[in-house]
Amino acid sequence: MAPSLSEEEIDDLIYLARAGDDADLTEMLQELVTRDGTTAADILGAAREEQTKATCLHMAAANGHAKTVTLILSHLPVPVKESLTAVAPTALEGADSVEATAQANPAYIDAQNSFGNTALHWACLGGHLDIVKLLLSRGASPAIVNDKDQIPLDQAAFNNHMHVVDHFLAQSKDMEGGNAQDGGLAEEAQDLDMTQDKNARSGE
Q1: Average pLDDT estimate for 8-13
Q2: Is 2 within a domain?
Q3: Which residues contact 15 (CB under 8 A, 6 or more apart)?
Q4: Distance between CA atoms of residues 174 and 76, nearest Å
Q5: What are phi and psi of 48, to 5 degrees?
Q6: In a domain, 1, yes or no
Q7: What percent of the chain is modeled with pLDDT above 90?
Q8: Half-sphere exposure of 39 (CA within 13 A, CB side)
Q9: In a 3-state reduction of DSSP, which class is residue 190?
Q10: For residues 73 and 71, what is the distance between their CA atoms, to the nearest angstrom?
Q11: Where residue 8 falls among pLDDT bands split at 50, 70, 90?
């Protein structure tokens, strides 16, 4: 049964994810699941900010709340085959078990807001490497483009988060997607470096 969320309930879920209030977010999800006879995954899928279409996962990722990202992903049912060894230890802290949190719904993970950005875009924009690792380990695509034709790597590079760029390059051979094949991410980063150098010389 599809959940029926009011605007106020959606706003509350979005706010709790943005604030990293895991206890209240968990409590609210449980209450809505019981009321609507559905799943937490369905509740999360239905909770999108009215104007920007951002999800709870967007908000948690953008604000650097690794525990909240882990909490959200733990409610999603599709298991991911990738190893969790690359995930920062703090990202899994507080989870019942690695097995319990090694689940994700690729459609939800890769949900795009009204500007085409995914949660991975926003994590890269903020330079939150632990969350970048966490999302990638759960199957988030590094190849999705936003309405400016930018992949998540672009967001990291344009904002000088080179520690995030370096991680993408180190993992590029193992990633899926057109931009990750045949050294695509490495070529993308090289192009970005050349553009930045050109802009620096021209004073832009």
Answers
A1: 98
A2: no
A3: none
A4: 23
A5: -130, 135
A6: no
A7: 64
A8: 8
A9: helix
A10: 6
A11: very high
**1 contacts: CB under 8 Å, gap ≥ 6:** 36, 37, 38
Give the closest residue to 82 by CA, choosing from 199, 180, 15.
Answer: 180
Structure tokens belonging to residue 194: 């050349």
Q: Is 53 helix (H, G, I), strand (E, B) or coil?
A: coil
- pLDDT class of 33 with cuts at 50, 70, 90: very high
CB 45, CB 90: distance < 8 Å:
no
Q: How many residues does the chain have?
A: 204
Res. 96 pLDDT band, cuts 50 70 90 = very low
Whether 17 maps to a domain, the answer reads yes
**CA distances from residue 100 to 70, 77, 108, 200, 204 in whole angstroms, order as listed:** 10, 10, 18, 47, 48
The CA distances from residue 85 to 82, 111, 130, 178, in Å, are 9, 25, 12, 24
91: domain CATH number?
Answer: 1.25.40.20
Question: In this structure, what DSSP letter does residue 181 have?
Answer: G
What's the pTM value of the predicted model, to 2 decimals? 0.74
Look up the domain containing 100 and give its range.
7-202
Euclidean distance between CA atoms 31 and 48, whole angstroms: 18
The helix/strand/coil state of 116 is coil
Which pLDDT does position 77 carry in this prediction?
63
> Where do we find the tokens 């180190």?
170
Residue 16 domain-assigned (yes or no): yes
What is the number of domains present in the chain?
1
